[in-house]
Write a sequence for this structure.
C-alpha cells in the first residue's frame, strides 16, 4: 500500500491506498484505503508485544531465515550465471583485440556488456554478503523489540518514522481476512539491538 494525504478545510488526513486499487480500480480491492493512524498504531503495538511472545519470535525468525536462505540460493545461482556470462564475453573479446583488423563496433558492444555484467556481479556479491551478515536470530529480535518501547516515546515523529523504516522491511494488509503481516528487516533489527540509545539510533537512521 502507498501512503497518501488529503485535506478537507484545515484538517489533513493520512491514509494508505492499495496498489491494486490504484492500478485496476477501487472495485477490485476489498479495502482500497485504510486510515494511516490505525494501521500504524497496530504495527507499533505488535512490535511492543512480540518481544514478550517466545512462540511468535520463533515463528518470525524461522520465516525470516527460510526467506534469507531462499534468496541466498537464488543469488548464488545468479552469480554463477553472471560469471559464466562474463567469461563468455571475455573469450569473444580477446581474439577481436588481437586481430590485425579490429571491428570497433563489436569490441565496443562487448566491452559495454562486460562492464554491465561486472556491475551486476558486484551488486549480487554485495547482496550475498549482506544476507550472510544479517541473518536474524531470536535473541536479536527479542532484544530489539524490548528496546523499542522505552525508546519510542523519546523520538520525534520524523525519527519514529525512520525507526519503523529501519526495523521493518514490509507491512502487508490482507484484505481477504483483514490481517496485517509484518516482515522485519534483519539489518535494522541488529542495528536497534546494538545501538539502543537515542543518539545512536538517530545516527543509524540519518
Amino acid at each position: 500500500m502507498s501512503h497518501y494525504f488529503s485535506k478537507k478545510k484545515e484538517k489533513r488526513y493520512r491514509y494508505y491506498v492499495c496498489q491494486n486499487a490504484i492500478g485496476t480500480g477501487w472495485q477490485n480491492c476489498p479495502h482500497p484505503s485504510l486510515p494511516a493512524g490505525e494501521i500504524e498504531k497496530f504495527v507499533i503495538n505488535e512490535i511492543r508485544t512480540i518481544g514478550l511472545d517466545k512462540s511468535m519470535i520463533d515463528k518470525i525468525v524461522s520465516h525470516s531465515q527460510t526467506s534469507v536462505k531462499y534468496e541466498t540460493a537464488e543469488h548464488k545461482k545468479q552469480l554463477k550465471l553472471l560469471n559464466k556470462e562474463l567469461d563468455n564475453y571475455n573469450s569473444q573479446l580477446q581474439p577481436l583485440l588481437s586481430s590485425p583488423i579490429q571491428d570497433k563496433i563489436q569490441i565496443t558492444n562487448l566491452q559495454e556488456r562486460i562492464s554491465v555484467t561486472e556491475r551486476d556481479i558486484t551488486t549480487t556479491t554485495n547482496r550475498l554478503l549482506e544476507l550472510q551478515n544479517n541473518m536474524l536470530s531470536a535473541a536479536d529480535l527479542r532484544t530489539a523489540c524490548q528496546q523499542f518501547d522505552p525508546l519510542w516515546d523519546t523520538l520525534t515523529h520524523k525519527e519514529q518514522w525512520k525507526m519503523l523504516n529501519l526495523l521493518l522491511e514490509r507491512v502487508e494488509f490482507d484484505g481477504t481476512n483483514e490481517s496485517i503481516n509484518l516482515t522485519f528487516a534483519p539489518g535494522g533489527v541488529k542495528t536497534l539491538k546494538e545501538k539502543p540509545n537515542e543518539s545512536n539510533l538517530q545516527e543509524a537512521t540519518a
About this structure: The two ends are 24 Å apart (CA to CA). The CA atoms of residues 128 and 167 lie 20 Å apart. The longest strand covers residues 2-8. Confidence is low (pLDDT under 50) at residues 198-206.
